[in-house]
Task: inverse folding
């Protein structure tokens, strides 16, 4: 039986919309579509939200909501842009377009917003990780450089200092 | 003129007399008073939703951060005595840690929700306890995180996102008027309170200011606890919690519930020292079952003063 969502809920993404997101994740990052099988995908304006599937969800569908699940993607121009929080949670499933930074590169990226790299990549988003494998979020690769897409207000210089201490 | 400020100072006490009214109910009162002169230690909760606690602990220690486990029973709770700003750590941005008073973290642990359950957090902002519940449920089931105020819903949403919570929605109902249509398996009622347990006499604070609305709080708390209970499934469980020592906001509110509804108090097992709830205060006698509630004092747990009652149906 289909769930009757209250009007405050975003729309459930249609098949085409869902397929577009899954295809993007697979083609750009190698993230298999099955990763999203266990999630409802909602859509509002230019954003997509994921909510874990559960028998319980129908019991809250009548409620007036102000936020649903985790904001996972935004439409930016022609691109689907995963959010930092989505990539931090799901980036581990990616197999390509991952850029591992050393400490100097990380510092440069945060302080200047860009690092020059020589990668055989197509223009688009790349997953940024540290050498120890921790997933930071996204960068945008274009013209031989990666531009930071990390949330500037949340990444602080002090984080670099604390991270650098152990080097 | 309309009073738009939610809280205003009403009573201002010199710090050396603060909480004297609790002299006869707080054990080792001089030690309690002494504990108030020390600043709060930073407490961290490791967030299993995004990282393995042991790896996070290793990463923090590698960066020279001294952290010690709060107790043997809980591998996600740590003190970080010399860490002034945990929000400046990379691990905070990554959602691997959440600065949260140990006693606050104990609330979700006392409720101990099973996986795939339906949960309501009635007064959820800023979201640390909600995220902890999602962590304990491993992001399964469905959780409704409610908070009346729009600005608090924003901070709630940020906390849930940063900590990788994927099983929740945010709602904005008045807690005491939350719709009754659907009963829940677990309910957390961490109600608005006078926050006495958060007070410390530091060099910057020379006076204790009591909330003007303190006298009104028990009425609101009683309405919330009744609504919470009415929203429980027959086999459901609710945790009522405050961060105050004030019996009028703690035992008295729970006692009111026991009188008004067919409720019972369930034992609390946490592996951390606490005192049993009171059975009388200010000539008011409470139900004997109130001894099953828990009072946490800063001189015992080096954290925020806290109260909790685990509630089920008879």
Result:
């Amino acid at each position: 039986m289909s769930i009757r969502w209250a009007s405050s809920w975003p729309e459930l993404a249609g098949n085409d919309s869902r397929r577009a997101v899954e295809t993007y994740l697979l083609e750009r990052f190698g993230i298999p579509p099955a990763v999203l099988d266990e999630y409802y995908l909602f859509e509002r304006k230019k954003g997509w939200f994921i909510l874990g599937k559960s028998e319980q969800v129908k019991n809250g569908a009548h409620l007036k909501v102000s936020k649903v699940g985790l904001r996972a993607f935004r439409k930016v121009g022609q691109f689907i842009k995963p959010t930092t929080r989505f990539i931090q949670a799901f980036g581990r499933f990616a197999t390509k377009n991952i850029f591992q930074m050393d400490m100097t590169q990380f510092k440069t990226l945060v302080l200047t917003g860009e690092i020059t790299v020589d990668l055989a990549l197509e223009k688009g988003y790349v997953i940024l990780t540290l050498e120890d494998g921790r997933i930071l979020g996204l960068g945008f690769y274009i013209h031989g450089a990666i531009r930071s897409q990390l949330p500037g207000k949340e990444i602080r210089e002090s984080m670099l200092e604390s991270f650098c201490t152990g080097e | 003129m309309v009073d738009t400020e939610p809280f205003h100072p009403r009573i201002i006490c010199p710090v050396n007399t603060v909480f004297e009214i609790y002299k006869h109910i707080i054990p080792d009162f001089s030690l309690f008073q002494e504990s108030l002169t020390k600043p709060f230690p930073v407490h961290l909760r490791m967030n299993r939703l995004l990282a393995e606690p042991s790896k996070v602990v290793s990463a923090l220690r590698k960066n020279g951060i001294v952290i010690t486990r709060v107790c043997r029973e809980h591998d996600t709770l740590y003190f970080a005595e010399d860490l002034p700003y945990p929000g400046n750590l990379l691990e905070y941005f990554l959602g691997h840690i959440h600065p949260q008073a140990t006693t606050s973290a104990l609330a979700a642990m006392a409720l101990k929700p099973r996986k795939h359950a339906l949960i309501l957090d009635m007064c959820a902002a800023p979201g640390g306890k909600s995220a902890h519940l999602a962590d304990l449920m491993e992001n399964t089931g469905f959780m409704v995180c409610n908070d009346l105020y729009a600005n608090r819903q924003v901070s709630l949403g940020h906390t849930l996102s940063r900590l990788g919570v994927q099983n929740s929605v945010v709602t904005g109902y008045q807690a005491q008027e939350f719709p009754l249509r659907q009963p829940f398996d677990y309910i957390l009622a961490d109600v608005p309170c006078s926050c006495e347990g958060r007070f410390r006499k530091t060099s910057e604070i020379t006076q204790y200011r009591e909330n003007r609305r303190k006298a009104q709080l028990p009425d609101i708390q009683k309405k919330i606890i009744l609504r919470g209970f009415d929203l429980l499934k027959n086999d459901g469980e609710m945790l009522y919690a405050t961060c105050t020592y004030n019996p009028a906001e703690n035992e008295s509110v729970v006692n009111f519930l026991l009188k008004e509804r067919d409720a019972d108090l369930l034992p609390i097992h946490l592996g951390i020292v606490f005192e049993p709830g009171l059975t009388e205060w200010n000539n008011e006698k409470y139900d004997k079952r109130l001894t099953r509630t828990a009072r946490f004092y800063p001189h015992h747990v080096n954290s925020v003063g806290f109260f909790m009652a685990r509630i089920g149906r008879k």
Remarks:
- Residues 1-10 of chain B have pLDDT under 50 and may be disordered.
- The interface with chain A takes residues 49-50, 59, 62-65, 85, 88-90, 92-95, 116-118, 139-142, 144, 150, 153, 157, 160-162, 164-173, 179, 181-182 of chain B (CB under 8 Å).
- The radius of gyration of chain B is 19 Å.
- DSSP finds nine helices and 17 strands in chain B.
